[in-house]
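User: Here's a chain of 125 residues. Predict its fold as tokens.
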Amino acid sequence: QVQLEESGGRSVQVGESLKLSCVISGYTVPSYCMGWFRQSPGSERETVANIDTDGTASYADSLEGRFAISHDSAKNTLYLQMDSLKPEDTALYYCAARLGLCAGWVGPPSLFKYWGQGTQVTVSS
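Assistant: Prediction complete.
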């Protein structure tokens, strides 16, 4: 059974950085697509970034290059480095995974089968 568990969310000030982690367990296939997503109150869940197990990453255009997704295969851990945080980045952040490859595009949340419980990021001015 595939399980994902996020950590690292907390309250920060505008302009600060934060790194989220997601431990993925239970996957028995060598290649799969992983991603970070976020959802703020009253809004739909949106894709932040996707990455394949080979390291190929893709990002939502709205991020303006402030976020970086990475994967450590030895630790089975997915990361999201977030810099220059803004109040509009406040959201519940989720990691997710699915079979197949991301293939270099930003897939919508509906494509992903396995989800973590989320970790809260709050950015205050």
